[in-house]
Amino acid sequence: MASLALNGIAKDFGDVCVLKDIHLTVADGEFVVFVGPSGCGKSTLLRLIAGLESASAGAIHIDGVEVTRVPAAERGLAMVFQSYALYPHMSVYKNMAFALENSGLAKGEIDIRVQRAATMLRLTEYLHRKPAALSGGQRQRVAIGRAIVRDPKIFLFDEPLSNLDAELRVATRKELADLHAAVAGTIIYVTHDQVEAMTLANRIVVLNAGRIEQVGTPLDLYNRPDNLFVAGFIGSPRMNLLQAIGSDGAALLPGCARITLPPGVEVKDEQPLTLGVRPEHVHLAAQGEGHLAIRVDLVERLGGETFVYGSTAEGLKLTVRRDGQSDIARGAMLHVQFNSHYLHVFDAAGLARRPAGQVGAAP
Known about the structure:
alpha+beta, 23% helix, six-stranded mixed β-sheet, 8 helices, Rossmann fold, CATH 2.40.50.140
């Protein structure tokens, strides 16, 4: 397997700048996931790494060797596409063996690689079937197997599970985690699905408008977002974001609720702020003891947990997560409070405000 380094990568399509000054290092054996909204440039960045697009600026290094202008076929990478891209007239075995046959590999070695990948992906009994006779999940496993047999330096996955139903996504996600553990390979994976990113990645790269917003482990991003974009993007349901004003070392919310800030976070009077708090860190309080009163607009009862969506008289929106089942009804009035240790504070520029010397907010 191999490491990857991107140094100042940019990509323009005519007058449209899609990627800007991308710097990223991926260690040998890492599972790195690119996430971001549609149009942020994550798939384009993957195609640049693969050699399917050429960079407008910057350099790409694989294991210390620059490959920026090296053709895709000579980079030693394997890419798995969203559409599977299987040959419909070939059997599963032939689909997996085709690239190896074209490279002139001996038949015995081809068979060993195909059988090994088929066993790993539970495809042995389907090797003589055509893709049309397979389910969506089986076809995706064939596409993954076709990548495995090539023994690539780096695996590249472009939203490989987006065409599968929910149950198959969960099953295939587990298979991808097992694959990474089995082959100890370097994997770069593009998805818009936060659950995939949070459960698969060693590190997540959050992209927005062609730039990297933050890189970190899943829990780093969840607990210590660097800015408002990451705070609002990572997490489902999303973090509650409330507009406030600095006042005497605290924050005032509309309606004059006074919120104590995390220890060591200093703000100026009249300074515009945004307070962030995860739904699981919003707690119900007795009437008159909470920070805010909300009217319940919607209740999602998921069995093991309940999400309550409400709004204040001033129009603030708030989501509350409750463990287990709850009898809270739409239209009810609730009083909620926040623990200051779990609050995130963002300035007018959208950047996280933290105590001096502290890397992130309290987890």
